[in-house]
Amino acid sequence: MEFVSSFISLLVGYYALKGYKEFSIKGLFFLYLGFIILGIGTFLRVFSATYFVILLRALEPALHLRSLINLAGLIYTLTQLIAYSLFTATYFLQAKALGEHSLELGIVSAVLFPIYGLFFNPSLELIAIVMLGFITVHSFNNWALKRSSGSALVFLGFGFMFLSHLLFLFMIMEPVFLFFGQVTQLAGFLCLLAMLARVSRVHA
Amino acid sequence: MPREHKEYRSKARIYVDILASIMKHGGKSRPTRVLYGANLSHDRLMKHLGQLIELGLVEEEKEDDAMIYKLTDKGRAFLIEFIKMEKFAEAFGITI
């Protein structure tokens, strides 16, 4: 799921870069940087989690390995925060100018939680929630103003990402929230992919 | 694409307004029509048309002793790409 999310994030970043370079649209610069950083960060998390699983199977988890994974988790969270800050800056600057699968879910989260739990930092998660809340409100305002399908999909995309971080926060109480959070996050990125598909359908 | 009130237009935006105006008239147009469509003075329009010809986005032809400006395939592709990018930017609330 996160691999798909990172791919979509890189795709949106590439599209924003194209707009910035070819048409000198300055507002797209922060968006490009944000999505590229988010894509790389998410990909690194997928890569390090897979690496950790492989190592766990091969040998006993050593203390230095655990701290290495903690470091990877911290880097991931920081890349996320940098990306959200850049999205916040985009909207800030713009505003200035203008049940049934519970068992399966339980198994999945039981497998995932010990690994992803290492990447979790509640205080940084709260900062991400605040920033995404701001971004979601602004994308909602943009949708209310434009009423276009593209702006609706962007609002839904950021809305789902905001929801996913809320769910990640509840992971402390119930590990299954990690899975729900992952699904919601993917739904957010899929909305952004649908927006990309829509804007690419312009013909002469 | 031309706007009703005066505001800063980027170079890319002016190019697109000129190209869109030519496109609106079936892909070829006289300068007077483009002038109104793109909301530019004659001097500025001629300057930008010269740049568009250099870029290969527009070509000029003589028809009935008058100069007409035609949209090239490259110009058409540029216009479509800009419209896509405009929709993309607008989805995020970014105005061009």
What is the structure about, briefly put?
Chain A is mainly α and 204 residues long. Chain A is built from seven helices and no strands. In chain A, helix 1 packs parallel to helix 7 and helix 2 runs antiparallel to helix 3.
Descriptors:
heterodimer; A: 204 residues; mainly alpha; 7 helices; B: 96 residues; alpha+beta; Arc Repressor Mutant, subunit A; three-stranded antiparallel beta sheet; globular; disordered N terminus
Number of DSSP strands of chain B?
3
DSSP summary: helix tally of chain B: 4
Rg over C-alpha atoms of chain A, rounded to the nearest angstrom: 18 Å
Shape of chain A: globular
What class do helices, strands and sheet pairing of chain A give? mainly alpha
Q: Total strand count of chain A, please?
A: 0
Supply the CATH architecture of chain B: Orthogonal Bundle
Helix/strand order of chain A, N-terminal first: HHHHHHH
Explain what the structure shows.
The complex is a heterodimer of chains A (204) and B (96). Chain A has helices at 2-23, 28-58, 63-97, 102-116, 122-146, 149-169, 176-199. Chain A has 204 residues and is an all-alpha fold. Chain A has one domain (2-98, 101-199). In chain A, α1 (2-23) runs parallel beside α7 and α2 (28-58) packs antiparallel against α3 (63-97). Mean pLDDT of chain A is 78; it is low at 99-118. A 3-stranded antiparallel β-sheet of chain B has the order 1-3-2. In chain B, β2 and β3 form a beta hairpin. The longest helix of chain B has 19 residues, at 73-91. Chain B is globular and about 45 Å long.
